[in-house]
């Protein structure tokens, strides 16, 4: 097992958080994840690492795997102007992650709290196929690598992030 994944598991264990791990082949897209047949374990999450046009603000957005994210609208909502995907270099610098492994667990590497974290709070009746992640029984996210998926409750993810002193801000995408 890699040192990165073990750090996540150790942190979860230390906090007494219940979770389930599914090891799998490396995945790089949500389509790759869908081919694994994991949805019966819980709601798979899509994670976007974004930056503003000046590169001064960075955002990690977690949403339902099927959510369509309008970057222009999101930028206005966040008061950040135009948003774009952050480079691999920024992903490594701020979250210590590689492309394809973006995850809220990466915030454990953001010791300067430079990244703003948002999670989708869509009302369950906004769309029959999209979920309010804070109401889901189990969320599936990568443990810093795209070779496994950790399933845990939103409450436990919030506890993990609270322990890191990360503000979990809810937003309707």
Automatic annotation (TrEMBL):
MF terms from GO for this chain are: aminoacyl-tRNA deacylase activity; aminoacyl-tRNA ligase activity
Q: CDD domains attached here?
A: PrdX_deacylase
| InterPro entries registered for this protein in UniProt | ProX/PRXD1 (IPR040285), YbaK/aa-tRNA-synt-asso_dom_sf (IPR036754), YbaK/aa-tRNA-synth-assoc-dom (IPR007214)
Start and end residues of each YbaK/aminoacyl-tRNA synthetase-associated domain: 24-160
Q: Name one Pfam family in it.
A: tRNA_edit
| Domain of life (superkingdom) | Bacteria
Q: Which UniProt keywords apply?
A: Aminoacyl-tRNA synthetase, Ligase
Family stated for the protein in its record: Belongs to the PRORSD1 family.
Indicate what this protein is called per its UniProt record: Prolyl-tRNA synthetase associated domain-containing protein
Q: Which organism is it from?
A: Dorea formicigenerans
């Amino acid at each position: 097992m890699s040192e990165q994944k073990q750090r996540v598991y150790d942190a979860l264990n230390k906090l007494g958080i219940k979770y389930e791990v599914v090891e799998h082949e490396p995945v790089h897209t949500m389509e790759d994840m869908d081919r694994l047949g994991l949805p019966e374990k819980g709601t798979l999450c899509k994670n976007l690492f974004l930056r503003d046009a000046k590169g001064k603000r960075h955002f990690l957005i977690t949403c339902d795997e099927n959510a369509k994210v309008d970057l222009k609208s999101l930028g206005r909502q966040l008061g950040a102007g135009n948003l774009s995907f952050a480079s691999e270099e920024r992903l490594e610098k701020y979250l210590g992650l590689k492309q394809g492994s973006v995850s809220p667990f990466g915030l454990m590497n953001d010791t300067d709290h430079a990244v703003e974290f948002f999670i989708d709070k869509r009302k369950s009746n906004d769309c029959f196929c999209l979920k309010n992640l804070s109401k889901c029984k189990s969320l599936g996210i990568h443990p810093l690598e795209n070779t496994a998926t950790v399933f845990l409750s939103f409450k436990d993810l919030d506890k993990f992030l609270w322990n890191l002193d990360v503000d979990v801000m809810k937003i309707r995408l």
